[in-house]
């Protein structure tokens, strides 16, 4: 059930903060499930800051456990936060080691445990995870297959009965096209009411039609759907305003941004092109049937997410043994 790591030593002072500034930090593991395996001590070296936040700080380092290959890890801690958050870390380790345990290495990082230091009634927490990439940025236009991977993994999680609870771009990490969800302290049971197929370039449905707020938010932010308006020369033009013979109207809508004859001529050409593109989109849009918009979940990937037994002793050795992400064909 659990991996053999029982204690870690972080070989550094993280910065000149309050935790053992001159020494290594040695901590026992906070067990959420009992283990009968012989205890092992891991050492984390080559520690470097990755991200500084108000509530948590994240470091990257190399974890060495006797008998295992070195592992690229991140250390999430509240050691330098204004307020320690031991309960949030307890909730998060519960998500990793209990609720979403079968998703480790699949849609959440492999977890090497929670370690807590008690000092004068104050508890400082260190959560150790396999490094799984850098955060997404919703301002970037990502390739369709990456968007599909994010949505499929999220949908799989929902249909397994959980929601993330606080999902934004900064807690979706990507490494070499592989997506993982992090910051799991708000994970909770969820009865997903998704009832709408996610079709790229389909017109944005309403949240009520769609049925699930968390998935809706992510699909919307990833710009998968055709929005009700299109940006033309800095103005948001409603789709209903873009129609054959309507180039004059579009030019009128952006006239203050056009100065010279040649700019106006250029804008005309672009207006005609936009009208043509929207007409083509309308033709395609009208081919989607109500039946196609009904969500049907292919449930096999939910059970395919069971990772190798981490108690086998080999789980901590090799990142290349990770299985391929599950495929749910939504897009
Ligand atoms: Zn849902």
TrEMBL record:
Pfam families reported in the protein's UniProt record: RIO1
GO terms for MF: ATP binding; protein serine/threonine kinase activity
The protein's enzyme class: transferase
Compositionally skewed regions (Low complexity) per UniProt: 299-323
Keywords: ATP-binding, Kinase, Nucleotide-binding, Serine/threonine-protein kinase, Transferase
Reactions that this protein is recorded to catalyse: L-threonyl-[protein] + ATP = O-phospho-L-threonyl-[protein] + ADP + H(+); L-seryl-[protein] + ATP = O-phospho-L-seryl-[protein] + ADP + H(+)
Enzyme Commission number, as recorded: 2.7.11.1
Region spans: Disordered: 299-331
InterPro entries linked: Kinase-like_dom_sf (IPR011009), Meiotic_Drive_Suppr_Kinase (IPR052396), RIO_dom (IPR018934)
Gene3D superfamilies according to UniProt: Transferase(Phosphotransferase) domain 1
Highest taxon above the source species: Eukaryota
Domain RIO-type: 143-185
Name of this chain's protein: non-specific serine/threonine protein kinase
